[in-house]
Specification:
Elements lengths: L1 H21 L9 H21 L5 H22 L12 H24 L2 H7 L14 E4 L1 H6 L1 H7 L6 E5 H11 L4 H19 L5 E4 L9 H12 L2 E4 L2 H9 L4 E3 H7 L9 E9 L6 E4 L5 E5 L8 E12 L2 E8 L6
Parallel strand pairs: 1-2, 1-4, 2-3, 4-5, 8-10
Antiparallel strand pairs: 6-7, 6-9, 7-8, 9-10
Helix pairs in contact: 1-2, 3-4, 8-9
Length: about 325
């Protein structure tokens, strides 16, 4: 609808321009209606050409232009080769041959360019790449929590995540403010985030871009992230559950790293043997608490006296809670000889 509004405005300008031309000279003053019709017809002609070129992309236009120039160059070389006579010969037969050369090779050049792909162009013009058609970039937008967490770097290095990593300038500024904070905990988080970001940049599989876009009308970083993800059509990676919910409400593609961790958590069946370290006593008498490498808490019966020791335990059951899974196990008695 907006396109047709522009076309109608353009048609009006062409019609008005035709009438204005009729006022330039006094001998044309009586023919204003004809000039109005001419301006209107010129505008409709350009709109018709625009409609015919609707499926003609910028890549097709550039390829056609390149093919035409290449065909013209070949025709010019053949014309000056002396094969069809002297180049300065302007006889009618020579002009017909010259016209056939330029029209023929220009057409062949345009057809070959339209049929070619980006690899053909890269052979002819090294270091110039054409972006694939209809293939959107896979943009991965990282927030502060995902960078500080560090697991995103592990996923990238393990080749689980592919795409262009986008780090907004305001997120980088937030990391720098944390790293310069007087609070030791915030300072440690900020420095860890900068270290993780440097680690991601050293990975050659994924390119990292610092995006300078900002939204001065938004004060909160979360609101800026959601708007930037929507504008770039990027996938937002975060550890903030509230930010993930806000992004979901606004139809922004968002990935919560905690949800990925839950999906990839080890599934333990009753009777499986675990090796773990008992770190503290449990709530009930005789229980000891240990943790698996993924952070899952294991409650081991009869392990209170083994605090600080590496033990083996047999899985009995699991309990799903809001905070995660709790595994209950029995201490395996030492082997007797």
């Amino acid at each position: 609808m907006a396109l047709w509004a522009i076309r109608i405005l353009f048609l009006g300008l062409c019609t008005g321009g035709g009438y204005a031309i009729s006022q330039v000279r006094s001998e044309w003053l009586g023919h204003g209606a004809w000039f109005l019709i001419a301006g209107f017809g010129f505008g409709w002609l350009l709109i018709a050409i625009d409609e015919m070129l609707k499926g003609f992309s910028l890549r097709a236009f550039s390829a056609t232009t390149f093919g035409l120039l290449l065909g013209t160059l070949v025709a010019l070389l053949i014309d000056h080769s002396g094969l069809f006579g002297e180049p300065n010969d302007n006889s009618p037969h020579r002009l017909i041959v010259r016209l056939a050369l330029f029209v023929g090779f220009g057409y062949i050049g345009m057809v070959l360019a339209m049929r070619s792909n980006k690899e053909d162009f890269s052979l002819i013009i090294p270091y110039i790449r054409f972006a694939p058609q209809n293939k959107p970039d896979n943009l991965l937008l990282l927030d502060t929590s995902a960078i500080v967490d560090g697991r995103i770097a592990d996923l990238i290095e393990a080749n689980f995540i592919e795409g262009l990593i986008v780090v907004p300038r305001f997120v980088l500024k937030e990391l720098q403010q944390l790293a310069d904070s007087n609070d030791p905990l915030k300072r440690a988080r900020g420095r860890r985030g900068l270290d993780i970001l440097n680690r991601i940049q050293r990975n050659t599989r994924n390119e990292v871009k610092i995006h300078d876009g900002d939204f001065t009308d938004e004060a909160a970083v979360d609101a800026k992230l959601v708007r930037l993800a929507r504008n770039l059509r990027a996938k937002l990676y975060t550890n903030d559950s509230n930010l993930a919910k806000i992004a979901e409400l606004q139809s922004v593609n968002c990935v919560n790293l905690h949800e990925i961790a839950k999906v990839l958590r080890t599934v333990l069946l009753p009777g499986e043997l675990l090796n773990l370290r008992i770190v503290r006593e449990g709530k009930d008498k005789g229980q000891g608490i240990g943790y698996l490498p993924d952070g899952t808490m294991v409650v081991v019966n009869n392990a209170q006296e083994a605090i600080g020791q590496q033990v083996q335990a047999l899985v009995q059951s699991q309990l799903q809670t809001g905070a995660g899974v709790i595994v209950f196990a029995d201490l395996k008695p030492p082997a007797t000889t």
